[in-house]
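Re: that backbone. Tokens:
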């Protein structure tokens, strides 16, 4: 590197963020041959699965939607199903995987992630312990970025940077947001991803028909409470993953990228609306609830929320135009996250300062996930996660994050003329991590498959 780079926190690759994406970029870079000391993770937590773990706990989620190859080892082989089969001495995961019906358990996946990050020294490369609030493209050669915290203090400089800051804020419909802003009703309207506790004998409404909402139907019924499912789409698609499976491989992603940006946004609007996977246990549980008079469905929108005798007095405008008045204990919104890039201050500042192109409040990324006009072949600035699903439609899944990480690290390796790690060394790393994972899985209670 040049004379510009002399601080211990000056790096070749910077990852802004400290979650799944950061771990996958780090793992891929080390596997390819980058010295860990030339990689910096800039965030507040040394635990890359902490945020996800909290969301999964709040949802009561036990299995991943993603398939067997969506895991944290640098290479795809062995798959999660293969490691699970060896660990349990049971071939069932292999047969389930052939039929695309194997879903890694959350606890198993978190165990594997811990093996990977601890074995590769990830936590030692989390630098600064602060959020990055600003990235500046510096003039002159060689090209680099300066990274500043929220107080404007210089934290580090980097030749290449990946923006992996995760989802935007939790999303609420305007009526639900107004109820959360009202002190009389605020604590009775929660998001599916927030912590919550259901009361036996209570009556709860769940908005939405995606996986988070379906998960909550079952949680409510299991708590001995009544559940009313409210959805806007009369016929939600039953889809196992959050985008069609064909978009999970390279050829599907390539085909998606041939569409114009507007067409891609329209397609995502269709593909991502109210899809939910089929789950054996969930279907049975909801059918039992319906039979017992504990589960009902409405199609429409909430017109008003006020305080009431049971907690909330809610009016629903049904699809047929009728109004339905309900007394509820609480409302759970399975409405996901705000997708607008402007909801994240770092992105908003980049848009305002550098004229980063925006279309329908989404950053118009290049097909290599580069952020124009700051991204250059010799000094990359990329984005991953849900903000990159306009380029890689499954960008907020483990498989999608891994796809973007590999593309980015490969580009950086070419720009830096990296002497890549030898095949025997890569193989030894992969096999070593797989062996440790198998040992760790033996100590984890097997998660029931729901597909």
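Recovered sequence:
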């Amino acid at each position: 590197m040049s004379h510009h780079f002399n601080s211990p926190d000056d790096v070749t690759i910077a990852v802004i963020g400290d979650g799944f994406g950061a771990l996958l970029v780090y793992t891929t870079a080390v596997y390819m041959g980058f010295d860990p000391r030339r990689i910096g993770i800039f965030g507040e937590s040394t635990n890359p699965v902490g945020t996800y773990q909290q969301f999964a706990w709040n949802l009561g989620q036990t299995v991943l939607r993603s398939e067997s190859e969506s895991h944290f080892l640098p290479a795809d082989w062995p798959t999660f199903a293969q490691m699970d089969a060896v660990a349990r001495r049971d071939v069932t995961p292999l047969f389930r995987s052939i039929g695309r019906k194997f879903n890694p358990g959350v606890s198993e996946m978190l165990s594997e992630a811990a093996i990977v990050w601890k074995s590769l020294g990830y936590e030692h490369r989390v630098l600064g312990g602060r959020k990055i609030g600003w990235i500046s493209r510096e003039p002159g050669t060689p090209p680099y970025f300066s990274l500043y915290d929220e107080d404007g203090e210089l934290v580090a400089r980097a030749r290449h940077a990946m923006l992996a800051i995760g989802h935007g804020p939790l999303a609420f419909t305007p009526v639900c947001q107004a109820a959360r802003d009202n002190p009389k009703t605020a604590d009775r309207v929660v998001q599916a991803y927030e912590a919550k506790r259901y009361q036996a004998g209570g009556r709860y409404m769940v908005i939405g028909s995606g996986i988070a909402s379906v998960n909550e139907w079952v949680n409510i019924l299991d708590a001995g409470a009544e559940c009313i499912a409210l959805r806007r789409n009369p016929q939600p698609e039953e889809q196992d993953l959050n985008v069609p499976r064909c978009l999970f491989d390279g050829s599907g992603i390539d085909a998606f990228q041939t569409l114009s940006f507007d067409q891609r946004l329209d397609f995502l609007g269709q593909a991502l609306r109210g899809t939910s996977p089929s789950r054996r246990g969930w279907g049975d549980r909801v059918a039992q609830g319906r039979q017992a008079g504990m589960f009902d469905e409405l199609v429409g929108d909430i017109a008003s929320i006020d305080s009431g005798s049971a907690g909330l007095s809610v009016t629903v405008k049904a699809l047929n135009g009728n109004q339905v008045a309900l007394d509820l204990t609480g409302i759970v919104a399975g409405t996901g996250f705000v997708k607008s890039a402007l909801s994240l201050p770092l992105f908003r500042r980049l848009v305002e300062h550098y004229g980063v192109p925006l279309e329908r409040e989404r950053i118009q990324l290049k097909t290599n996930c580069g952020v124009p006009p700051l991204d250059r072949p010799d000094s990359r600035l990329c984005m991953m996660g849900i903000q990159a699903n306009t380029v890689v439609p499954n960008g907020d899944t483990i498989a999608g994050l891994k796809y973007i990480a590999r593309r980015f690290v490969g580009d950086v390796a070419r720009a830096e003329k990296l002497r890549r790690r030898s095949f025997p060394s890569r193989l030894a790393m992969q096999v070593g991590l797989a062996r440790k994972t198998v040992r760790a899985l033996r100590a984890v209670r097997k998660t029931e498959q729901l597909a």
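The first helix runs from residue 20 to 32. The domain at 174-237+274-333 is CATH 3.50.50.60 (FAD/NAD(P)-binding domain).
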